[in-house]
Amino acid sequence: xxxxxxxxxxxxxxxxxxxxxxxxxxxxxxxxxxxxxxxxxxxxxxxxxxxxxxxxxxxxxxxxxxxxxxxxxxxxxxxxxxxxxxxxxxxxxxxxxxxxxxxxxxxxxxxxxxxxxxxxxxxxxxxxxxxxxxxxxxxxxxxxxxxxxxxxxxxxxxxxxxxxxxxxxxxxxxxxxxxxxxxxxxxxxxxxxxxxxxxxxxxxxxxxxxxxxxxxxxxxxxxxxxxxxxxxxxxxxxxxxxxxxxxxxxxxxxxxxxxxxxxxxxxxxxxxxxxxxxxxxxxxxxxxxxxxxxxxxxxxxxxxxxxxxxxxxxxxxxxxxxxxxxxxxxxxxxxxxxxxxxxxxxxxxxxxxxxxxxxxxxxxxxxxxxxxxxxxxxxxxxxxxxxxxxxxxxxxxxxxxxxxxxxxxxxxxxxxxxxxxxxxxxxxxxxxxxxxxxxxxxxxxxxxxxxxxxxxxxxxxxxxxxxxxxxxxxxxxxxxxxxxxxxxxxxxxxxxxxxxxxxxxxxxxxxxxxxxxxxxxxxxxxxxxxxxxxxxxxxxxxxxxxxxxxxxxxxxxxxxxxxxxxxxxxxxxxxxxxxxxxxxxxxxxxxxxxxxxxxxxxxxxxxxxxxxxxxxxxxxxxxxxxxxxxxxxxxxxxxxxxxxxxxxxxxxxxxxxxxxxxxxxxxxxxxxxxxxxxxxxxxxxxxxxxxxxxxxxxxxxxxxxxxxxxxxxxxxxxxxxxxxxxxxxxxxxxxxxxxxxxxxxxxxxxxxxxxxxxxxxxxxxxxxxxxxxxxxxxxxxxxxxxxxxxxxxxxxxxxxxxxxxxxxxxxxxxxxxxxxxxxxxxxxxxxxxxxxxxxxxxxxxxxxxxxxxxxxxxxxxxxxxxxxxxxxxxxxxxxxxxxxxxxxxxxxxxxxxxxxxxxxxxxxxxxxxxxxxxxxxxxxxxxxx
Length: 929
Known about the structure:
By secondary structure, the chain is an alpha+beta fold. Helix content is 51%, strand content 12%. The strands form six sheets. The protein has a five-stranded mixed beta sheet. It has a four-stranded antiparallel beta sheet with strand order 9-10-12-11. It has a three-stranded antiparallel beta sheet with strand order 1-2-3. α31 (710-734) packs across α36 (887-898) and α34 packs antiparallel against α36 (887-898). The radius of gyration is 37 Å and the shape is elongated.
């Protein structure tokens, strides 16, 4: 939607520029810029009056259709125009804007904001001469300006500076000699004599003819094409020629072409985003060097008319860029092209089209990249410039200045000396980014072997700043992963992450123990445990519940149903428990006892440590094969990583084995379970820690240790109870009966067990459905909370009050309305149940640059101490409600963890208060040069 909005805005700028160019007799870039800015600035007020827009818009919660803010209607209108442009319906979009453009044209025609520019539009630059005199004391100078045209008509004015004096002289001239302009600037009804092509150079004329042929333009286009290749320096030196051919320089055409090319670039970018939406994108304003390259690529430089002085200096980047934009403005206007230029672009210039409207997005330029990354690290970046060389060959050197308030340190990094300020900034930014890229390498210490001390100092500075931020408070994990900061991008590869941490400790050389309250470990853990969306286990569980709810009779219960529930229960229990580690030979001894008589003699196994979670996976693989009834065996296929092959003389079907492998592969990223024709292979990735790990390595090692999830343990208990009810129902239904009455009693017992199983399944679905609410949508929090509070008020008992939050800012959080509703329904529901005798519930929120915090509190009796202690310790919650299972709060916490949020209990003198932190949705970055 952002792409559509920006495309629609670009079309408005382009259309306004085209219309103003056609309505002004002698347009200048200054007048066009001011007029177009006025048309765009008044667009929101026009959009807010469009009744059709308000009635047809699909609005988010919290927005009043009859009182939409201009910001909203403007965005909606931009998006509609963007859709039309994407579909090639530019003419429809132009008709949509006609009313606004016509109104603004009339208002502009009857106003003069810049008399000097207006005078140039009426008479042209070449027809006017200016004289200035200065008088008065130094502390209060008075300037006098006199403007005279070729007919010796003059105007005078004075002021405290030359600009004011010139404007007053121009106004005086207009009032004396062309007063009609003061009442009607729109001179399109009586155009001046037409301009002519300037035939002063064979190269210039050849370039004009070439453009005419390439774009299939009429002969009448030659004067405009000639103007596009006419620089101000030539116009200044050849005033008589300019007057003779009634010409002007290319500045107005360059402004027009810039708007046209800007639109074409955004159109190409939007089309790419629609076809292949990226996770993150940036709309860029193409820099001058791109247009300059295009100008030289199409070989028009020889036809550009330059003054003698400028010709001796060559064609700098800015002139080349302006010339190309002017050519595009002239071609578009001369051909009266409708729609996109792509439809009329000559095949000979196809490579140039890829420069200005690439089919794939251009890479983000270095200065913007650095600004984004430094913002995540809370490091302001400024630039200092020095200039060297003569005026015609100036070279700029930029120094990136980075200051850390937390560390009290400022570092400077110089770039190379290059032509132009912007390229100099990019050069300095690239030098800084080079250090960050080397830090993101898997071996940061080795990456800086042989590096200059300046680079090593900058590397240590960045690492220290990142470590400080991670240690002090939670950070937006996904943004840090995307930016490849502090090794979080390596979290999916445990050995690589550990190797990186060892290298960082070597660079920093810190001798600090990891503090208990440090967020450093939590940051690595969030990256390591970043859940898949959707969670495959929750998907399997939802399907299992669907299957069970369709069982209408006890005789329909099969061993397949029971076995699947047992497997699900084992998986969830594995994730919810903290079983101790064991070495492989000891685990093999347990297998010999458990599967006595059904296993081949095990070979000698290496003393490899096996985590409790890996043990559960290995046990499940062996049990799955043993269920086939044949003799099983275990073989070590590799030690690094550990690969165990489980084989059976009578393995279950490949489908059953694949289901088992799929289920248990979701247990850990470090464990892979694969089905084979003969059995199951289990691969366990092993990590080795150094004997004396540094603080960063300690944090990584701690993060790599699996943490039990109380929510999973609670689900495992429900699954266990559900399985027991199914087994009891099946057993009661299958037992022989001595009489008809006994048979009916057995059927009644079986039916009751099945009903209880259905009740448990319903409770399980209600508890786990919350986790399926985590989606990739985002919602504007203030509007959502206002709407949500209004809905809650309609169902609150009269004895309970609810404070409605006020909007402090506009932020979008990384959760959709469905997920937020599930979270707040649980917390608000608990508060309502606690306030049996009435009371008050308070709903409030705030936000910073990275996350929003929502507080829900009540003045009830407070949370029982055992529940508070269990929640704070991350343990199972035993519900005090009749029929409760403690899954509600655990579900809220799990759902928030999926997106990097958190649920915390706030200590209060009375009542209960919950703090829910929600990460902000990743903004669409923009850039300009």
